[in-house]
Structures are given as C-alpha cells and as structure tokens.
Amino acid sequence: VITIHTVEELRRECEQARMSGRTVGLVPTMGFFHAGHRSLMQAARAATDLVVVTLFVNPTQFGPNEDLAAYPRDLDRDSDAARDENVDVLFVPTVEEMYPEGAPLTTVHVDRLTTGLCGASRPVHFDGVTTVVAKLFSMVGRCSAYFGRKDFQQLAVIQQMTRDLNLPVDVVGCPLVREPDGVAMSSRNAYLEPEEREAARVLSESLRAVADAVVGGERDTATVEGIVRERVGREPRVALEYAEVRDARTLVPRTELDGTVVLALAAAVGRARLLDNVVLTIRGSHVDVDLGVRTGGRGTPAVP
Ligand code: PAF
Prior knowledge:
six-stranded parallel sheet; alpha/beta
C-alpha cells in the first residue's frame, strides 16, 4: 500500500490505472478500521484492479455538539490493516487539503431522503457527507465505490446523489457486519464501557425479534416498531432515538409491510450513538431477512 496525502497524487494514481485499462475501486472511510471496513476493502479487492481507501474524518458532517474532536483515530493500525487487505492506495488528506478555502461555498444537498431518521437529530450531517463524497468521486473519477449497509440512510442518500448528478460511479452497498454476539460493528463502539457494550446487544436482539414476528406473519408497521421500543425500553443503559419502518429505496414511511422495507434504528448508549437495521423483503407469505453477516471471530465475515 502507498500512502498519499494530496488530491493531485490521488488523481494521478487513478488516471494512470484507467489509462492502462485497470478499474478503480474506492472505499471512503473515516478510519479506525474494523471488520466492517475490511469487508468493504475485500469487496473492492475482489471486483476491481486498483483499490483506493480514503481516510478522512470529515469535519463538515459533524454538528457543533458532536464527537469530531473525540472521534477515534489510529493511523498506524489502519495502515497495517490496509496493507493486510492488499489495498493499493491509502489517501490520507489534511483538512486543508480537502477544504483549502475553509468551509466550501458549494455544497451538495439531497432533499427528502435526508429529513427524517438520522437527519432529524443531525441537521447538517448529510450535507457534509454528500459534499465530501461528491468531492471524493470527482477526485477519483470513474470507479466502483463501496459503502456499508449499517449506515442505511447514508447509502440511500449517496445512491440518490449519484443518480441525480450522473456521477460516473457505481455505488455498491455491502452487508452490515456484526460482532460475534450480534452487535453491529462501528468505530463508535470504542466509546462503550464494558457494561454499555453488553447492553448494546439489545439493539440487534430487538431487530431479530422483529424479523421473527414478520416471518411469523406480522404485517403491521406500528406493531413491529413497538417490538423494538418495548425491548429496548427494558434496557436502562440504552436510549432509543428512533425505530422506523421505511421503504428501502425511497425511505418514505410505510404503514404496511410489503416489498422491500428497512426497519432502521438509532440509540444512545453511553457516549456512543449507534445505528442498526434489518432489511425485509416481503412477497405474500415469503419473507427474506437481511440482518447482515457476523464475524467468525478474527474479523472474517461469515454468513449468520
Ligand atoms: O461512513 C463514513 O465513514 C463517512 O460518512 C464517509 C462516507 C466516509 C464520508 O465522510
């Protein structure tokens, strides 16, 4: 892996690869890699020739009272992980390199999909995400870009932006990756005290209960949202922010369960704000449940 710091080097690496007939795979990250990030690198490695991982804790997607300063960072460990995953290029820009004129006057805003769910409590977040991802897409050029489904709303918003702006990028959604006990992998799990980490299990357990209810024939949105509220409500260390059923593509609220829907949730556990979701595809009495994959222990994703 080569580590580069400038936009010019990034453009050169990607252009040279394409000129010699190689495809480019992009994995945008904020670092502090876990098995979820590694699974994105593996997907890029399997499908493309030049794998570029970007590592940038993007200040514009954090609100004034959020965890920008505390966000976990460990460049040495991340460089080792990138090398282990056979990444070709690790792009680690400074804030000045990404935003040389300070806060940009031009931003990218995706309407509607950004108003509810996480957008309700994080009003500046998605404009920061779409603006930095559009910049990365512009720097890298034609490529496939890999994002995890844990950040389900983020993925839907980036897919919408890419379609709306005809960006030459194939956005690939990859499975949510769980710890062996079911907790969704997140860099923010590093904030959890041991008893909070234990309590966080209730989130994935409540989603499993929802999946079981829907497989068992439940089709009422309010009832399944109630299952999550009731289960999580029994765990005093976890404060549920939302648990909502939405259309998986448009994120429009759904009253009845059919087609492909997501039940997405966010919750505060200690200092961490955690996300999780289950995607359900319902055709008559048939239900496909997508709860992602569990790691088999040493960071290797395995089917549940
Ligand atoms: O998901 C993340 O880590 C970030 O939101 C992203 C997509 C790298 C943009 O900063």
